[in-house]
UniProtKB/TrEMBL annotation:
It comes from Clostridium ganghwense. The keyword Transferase does not apply. SUPFAM superfamilies: HAD-like. CDD domains: HAD_Pase. Signal peptide: none annotated. This is Cof-type HAD-IIB family hydrolase.
């Protein structure tokens, strides 16, 4: 019997307009009524999922979220941090210097919002999606006490602005001035294994889109986040369903008792999943709840 349902947000629970469908909401409520613990497990900060937590009636001291792709686990009232795995200042400096060498940019998820050394298209979308302020900071003299939950490496050019808008179609950005990247290499993140070995060995590197990589503390990912959450709740590994679609969902899908890939998931995510459901536009989450939770616990035929 499954007791914990870990759900990615973008491309999984949310449709292409950043909404939770009526079908997904109703299925989640039925799972909750059967005692299943629902945990939103996302690359977003907590500010980027608060409206959805309210919509799903998950804001209480005994409901939790895995945020920043596993770097920060906290209860949904934000009063209790279960685990926090930050990036050190020295690790940040290494990543910043590497980004400059690769002619790309980056942003930082911090307590103060999303920090950037200069404007980027992705960071503006990221700021709106996460309901976090976007702040320009001098990364050459960043305060060593700055809390860094997550770094995003961003390989972008003006040419990908339209592609980015397909990931965030409900977000409209106007009057954003971005300089063209004359050294833009669209294939830079095609094969992550070709990146410098120091980056791959010292951090958790997660490919979330063709032009973004998440950089986390080496000790965390969504899989470790779900594992820690399950320990907190006294739930066994085989009692967990994890559903996702992109590179930062890989570890939790591998860890789960039932690892599920969305129909719109990356090919490599589908290959490691136990089951592939419908797309995020076809209520794939509701399908999993019906098939593996409601049918089983209510003794219904498949």
């Amino acid at each position: 019997m499954y007791k914990l349902l870990a759900l990615d947000m973008d491309g999984t629970l949310l449709d292409n307009n950043q909404k939770i469908s009526k079908e997904n909401i109703e299925a989640i409520q039925k799972a909750k009524e059967l005692g299943v613990k629902v945990v939103l497990t996302t690359g977003r900060a907590i500010g980027g999922i608060e409206e959805y937590l309210k919509e799903l009636d998950l804001i209480s001291e005994d409901n939790y979220s895995v945020t920043c792709s596993g770097a920060l686990i906290l209860n949904n009232t934000k009063k209790e941090i279960i685990e926090c795995n930050n990036i050190s200042h020295d690790e940040f400096k290494f990543t910043f210097n590497l980004a400059e060498e690769l002619n790309i940019t980056l942003n930082i998820y911090s307590n103060d919002g999303i920090l950037v050394p200069s404007h980027s298209i992705f960071s503006h979308f990221d700021s709106v999606a996460n309901n976090l302020p976007l702040k320009i900071a001098d990364f050459n003299s960043l305060d060593e006490e700055t809390v860094i939950n997550k770094i995003t490496l961003i390989n972008e050019d003006l040419s990908i602005a339209e592609q980015l808008s397909t990931f965030f179609p409900s977000i409209c950005l106007k009057d954003i001035h971005i300089n063209a990247n004359q050294k833009f290499d669209k294939d830079l993140f095609e094969d992550v294994s070709n990146l410098p070995i120091e980056l791959l060995e010292n951090f958790t590197i997660l490919k979330t889109s063709p032009y973004t990589l998440e950089v986390l503390n080496k000790n965390c990912n969504k899989g470790t986040g779900v594992k820690r959450m399950a320990e907190e709740l006294g739930i066994k590994q085989e009692e967990i369903i994890c559903i996702g679609d992109s590179g930062n969902d890989k570890h939790m899908i591998e860890y789960a008792g039932l690892g599920v890939a969305m129909g719109n998931a990356f090919t490599e995510i589908k290959e490691i999943a136990d089951y592939v459901t419908y797309t995020n536009e076809e209520n794939g989450v509701a399908h999993i709840i019906q098939k593996f939770i409601l049918n089983e616990q209510l003794g219904m035929a498949d």
